[in-house]
Amino acid sequence: MAAHSLDDYARLAREGRDAVQAEFLAAEERASAGNREILERTGLRQGPAEPPGPPETATKILGRTWSAPLVVGPLAGLFRPEGELAVVRASRAAGLPVVVSAFSGRTFAELSAAAEGPLWLHTRLFRDRGAARWLVSRAQDAGFGAVVLTLGPQQHARLAPGAVPVNLAEDVPIRPPSGGPLADLGGYGPFADPSALLDHTVDWPGVEWLRSVCPLPLLIAGVRTPEDASRALRSGADGIVAETLDTLPAIAATVAGRCPVLLRGGIGRGADVLVSLASGADAVLLERPVLDGLLVAGREGVGAVLDEVVRELRAALVFTGTGSAADADPGLLRTGRTPAREPDTGPPAREAAHPPRTGDLRKSDLHTSVGDPVLDTMNFLNEVTQRYPDAISFAPGRPYDGFFDTEQIVTHIRAYLDHLTGQGLSPQAVRTAMYQYGPTAGQIREIIADSLRADENTDVPAESIVVTVGAQEAMLLVLRALITGPDDVFLVSSPCYVGITGAALLLDTEVRAVEERADGVSCADFEAAIERERAHGRRPRAFYVVPDHSNPSGTTMSMRARVELLDLAARHDLLIVEDSPYRLVSPGTPLPSLKSLDRDRRVIQLGSFSKTIFPGARVGFVVADQRVTGENGATSLLADELAKIKSMVTVNTSSLSQAAVAGALLSARGRLSELNARPAEYYGDAMRATLRELDRNLPAERRAELGVGWNEPTGGFFLTVHVPFPADNETLTRSAQEFGVLWTPMKYFYPQAGGDHAIRLSTSYLTPAEITEGTARLARFITALSTEPQT
């Protein structure tokens, strides 16, 4: 048969079900819904490097080594006459253990012969203890290797049609409930309703009794809390089967390696297996994908599903840089969860600094992003700047204050008010426009659309624009809309503006880096990244790039690369997120924006007026003219969907700020390039002066001797200097303290490591005199550290 993915098997299995099968499987889906929800929003972090060789999946459980941390089942009522034998034989070929139900339709001896290795028996507490003793004895005689006892309510009320539990035949000494005949249990046979025979309470004395009569290793399933795990251990359990992923870390911490911990419920892919291992499990029980494979193609389908899950597990290990399944730890998880709770050892000691029962929090109680170094970057730079106020700073990438006049704000707002009046709005309507919230998508969209046509040759309808609180909010809205689950990934050029990676961190969005070369992003590298992600079962959704004078490197994408990038996006059916805040504050005529070249609505454009008008306005925008089609066939613009998200975030962008920006645009007839002609000339001069002074202080011969170099941007605010020593927080502090000059470590801007020997210089905020003195200090610092012995 043709090769199928796990998704294919799930789809084909759904199509082939009858009503009874669908009802039976729906109960299993409901039981595992909680675990599925957690797995769908939990991803894996990409490791710094792939393991040196193929990752090791072999796992030792209960003294036996299996090919992978997978236990097949427990399975009963498999809808096909040969179902259980097919599963057992396919699992034997895959080198995996199988859990067989007490209500199996095949004898234990027959299944054991097909397995050619120990099976595990899955049972519950019977009301009649003699039945339990009989089953365990029969399983032991057949060569079974363990017993899995599930506590609590039965998930499925009945066996599937045609399933006859032959191991509970007439010779089993079961006393009928309430003294009635077994045939009165009804259904498809005397045992079609197994719940009538079972004890559904969590009966710990019953567990201890079974432990006393069971010579096989005993695993306790149905464990949902650390307290349950502790009690199971005290009752003599040789293993724990946790039922809920959210409490798995706490259960694993309670068990503390004293026995294996398995997870049951919701496992559907290889990545789910690794998430479970990283959360504290030693292995998982695989049920639903096996059923799908069986329903579609019998034994061959089961074998293909098992092979695919193991293959995906290996791919996940490679992706995270983990050499073996045994090495999985919580650091692999992208979505933070509540940390594992320590076993209860009595009341905690009183903390000296905080009285009990306060609202104080631990850092671990907060979202994991708040502890990420990306969010600490700006705080550290601000701290260093304040500590060394006399140091000349090449760190802040902000506009030069000399171009701002306080009275301009009033003039801009007045120009916008006059515009509204000229449009025929009454005084009441003008007052409402300024004092009320206004439309979520913004009230100056027409003015922004006119400006894009005038300055960028970009013709988009005003309805495709959402006015945002700076470009940062635009990034959050786009990420939230496009990323739908842990298999979706967001590609970024690297080094990359920390705002986009920070936004991704807040939204638990996995970012993959496409490394910039000296002349910018290579389309070949971009395509390789797309193919690599898809090979690992992930879906690249969009690619973030700053094509003009990028932050932080200062590189500019060539015209040829722009055209190739758009063509690549079309061929691979993904979006480009364009962010170019430095285009109109740089000298010369810029290359066409990606959006202006976009003919297939592949580009989402982020815009900001922070550099072109003034940062304090906090006004940006996003152009999202992509069409969105609903399940009912109705269409909308992506901008409409972004506005819905914005309504739950900032509600709207300040009407006062919009008025100031709109007034500036109106005064320049939409041509920001004309409004910024003088600043662009200033910034161009600053960049050329910095490059000239660097060359004067570190001429080519000296640079070659020291191992130092830099790029030469033609515009924008930033350039990159490569140095032979680690450019980190420690050397930055030394630079400020001993040499009186500040800069930014480039390592902050690499999402997946890099930039350890590079610094970012921003030239926009300094006067000519500060550039001359600052570069002299910087040269002395670079020379001193480059000639020191490296330890």
Automatic annotation (TrEMBL):
One of its GO terms (biological process) is alpha-amino acid metabolic process. GO terms for molecular function: oxidoreductase activity; pyridoxal phosphate binding; transaminase activity. Signal peptide: none annotated. Residues 351-366 have a biased composition (Basic and acidic residues). Its cofactor is pyridoxal 5'-phosphate; FMN. This is Aminotransferase class I/II-fold pyridoxal phosphate-dependent enzyme. Residues 36-55, 328-366 are annotated as: Disordered. Pfam families: Aminotran_1_2, FMN_dh. InterPro entries: Aldolase_TIM, Aminotransferase_I/II_large, Class-I_PLP-dep_aminotransf, FMN-dep_DH, PyrdxlP-dep_Trfase, PyrdxlP-dep_Trfase_major, PyrdxlP-dep_Trfase_small. Coiled coil: none annotated. Keywords: Aminotransferase, Pyridoxal phosphate, Transferase. Residues 436-777 form the Aminotransferase class I/classII large domain. Residues 26-334 form the FMN-dependent dehydrogenase domain. PANTHER family: AMINOTRANSFERASE, KYNURENINE_ALPHA-AMINOADIPATE AMINOTRANSFERASE, MITOCHONDRIAL.
